[in-house]
Design goal:
The chain contains nine helices and eleven strands. The longest helix has 25 residues. It is of the alpha/beta class. It has a single domain, classed as Acetylglutamate kinase-like (Carbamate kinase, 3-Layer(aba) Sandwich), CATH 3.40.1160.10. The two termini are 21 Å apart. Helix 6 runs parallel beside helix 8. The chain is globular, with a radius of gyration of 17 Å.
């Protein structure tokens, strides 16, 4: 096994499944089962979920929403997704806890890195919601920050594609996949892996990122057992 403690970043859009909006119950169940398998392997798991299936602050701003209010709505969307995942995990017997970046007891407990680490060490899956608690930061940046704070070995970024390519593989059939790539190469090639703030934080704090397709059932376990199915980003 490669990693003892992971920060798993899940895409809000992926939670939609085949729907155009909201939460697909089958996709949610698949995610929960994969997380259960990882927990049974003894991996400590912290999770950050995006909110794009419900509301995205940036797209709200483009439609006339105040950017700060739009981002706050996006933060609440991540809390809704986090509660859905928590419920799905509880249903299949996985102990978990939702921590929120903004005070909203009793929906979740207020986040601190000490509390998150204590829960991880006690064998709980910890779902970290509300982004960073601040506007103008994406959930990718929230993932980077939380991954560094809880001393994760790696950020596993679950997406709809199976790694990082020279171009968008959904648009360019000639795009080639990287097995490994450096943070500097991502900058130099202007690849859209995560936003620059998130990428820079990971680079400066030596938190590797592993990009893989979380929507294929069983892929999380493959990553954790060392199968080369995605792209590793390191210094």
């Amino acid at each position: 096994m490669q990693f003892k403690r992971i920060l798993l970043k899940l895409s809000g859009e992926s939670l939609m499944g085949e729907q155009g909006y909201g939460i697909d119950s089958q996709r949610l169940s698949d995610y929960a089962q994969q997380i259960k398998e990882a927990a049974q392997m003894g991996v400590q798991i912290a999770i950050v979920i995006g909110g794009g299936n419900i509301f995205r602050g940036l797209s709200g701003a483009s439609k006339g929403f105040d950017r700060v209010k739009g981002d706050q709505m996006g933060m609440l969307a991540t809390v809704i997704n986090s509660l859905a995942l928590s419920s799905a995990l509880t249903t299949i017997g996985v102990r978990n806890r939702v921590l929120t970046a903004i005070r909203m007891e009793p929906i979740g407990e207020y986040y601190s890195s000490d509390k998150a680490i204590q829960c991880l060490e006690a064998g709980e899956v910890v779902i970290l919601s509300g982004g960073t608690g601040n506007p103008f930061f994406t959930t990718d940046t929230g993932s980077s920050l939380r991954g560094i704070e809880v001393k994760a070995d790696v950020m596993l970024k679950g997406t709809r594609v199976n790694g990082i390519y020279t171009a968008d593989p959904e648009k360019d059939p000639t795009a080639e996949k990287f097995d490994t790539i450096t943070f500097d190469e991502i900058y130099n090639r202007n690849l859209k892996v995560m936003d620059l703030t998130a990428t820079t934080m990971c680079k400066e704090n030596n938190l590797p990122i592993y990009v893989f397709n979380m929507d294929v059932y069983g892929n999380l376990k493959k990553v954790l057992t060392g199968e080369q199915i995605g792209t590793l980003v390191t210094r």
